[in-house]
Amino acid sequence: MRRSLGENVFNVFNLLFLTGFMLITLYPFLYVVFASFSNAGLLLKHRGLLLRPAGWEIQAYRMVFKNPILFSSYLNTIIYVVSGTTLSIFLTICGAYSLSRKNVLFRMPITFFFVFTMWFSGGMIPLFLLVRNLHLLNTRWALILPSAVSTYNMIITITYFKSIPDSLEESARIDGANDYTIMFRIIVPLAVPVIAVITLFYSVGIWNAWFHAMIFLNRRTLYPVQLILREILILNDTAGIMGGVVSQGDQIIVGETIKYATAVVATLPILLVYPFVQRYFVQGIMIGAIKG
């Protein structure tokens, strides 16, 4: 089709606007990357936009990777992400399958109570008391069980399951299949896009979580990497990473680049996961949102 002059002008302005918006969104991340490879003294003297590293150095990354606390926190985060995401996906699939079946008793009231928690919750103090009474304080389960199921992710999954034709389930039941067979051999293989989406949601949420770790954990051996990053960025605690390598007078200068290097190290792995599930992302969200 031939486009009119107005459509071509709109496309040009739309492209320029989206390009500018992309650069504005991308620049903070690029700034952190450039700053992490910069010389600490030159970085503190720099003013204005940072379009390249201010004196190429990798000293900050050397100090970060020499820190044993970072590796133990990384291991903890991987444990939390893998175990937490696996449990969350399993519970979400089981709950969504049950609530998407038309013949389930009390399906609507149960769904209402799930949705109710999206707007109203007990708050931080009741949650802390619950975790304490369950003897989960200072354990890995304190970061896995309280946030095991997201109502938002369950609603998306329920909507997607409802979009699968009922004839597939009816045919399977005629062949003698039970609910477990139908769920894991028919519904789940057809729901790969939405499962990939909620897997990304759960894994990113667990990877970035730090608040529950701050209030439920006192043992540093159980800290996730985001809590270590918080100590570095907010509490300005970089002495542990430097390990006495530099003098106290130089800690403030070198600590600036260490903050950026730690942020890159803590963020990069989860960014590398997204391209592998990107093709499922839009498909799962759109089908789960439109069909019902």
What would CATH call the homologous superfamily? MetI-like
CATH domain fold name? MetI-like fold
**What count of helical segments does DSSP give?**
15
Structural category: mainly alpha
Mean pLDDT: 81
Strand-residue proportion: under 5%
Provide the gyration radius in Å: 24 Å
End-to-end span in angstroms?
34 Å
Helix content: over 70%
What is the overall shape? Answer: globular
User: H/E order of the elements?
Assistant: HHHHHHHHHHHHHHH
Number of separate strands: 0
What CATH architecture would you give?
Answer: Orthogonal Bundle
Low-confidence runs: 244-250
CATH class: Mainly Alpha
What does the model show?
It is built from 15 helices and no strands. With 292 residues, it is mainly alpha-helical. It has a single domain, classed as Orthogonal Bundle (MetI-like fold). About 2% of the residues have low confidence.
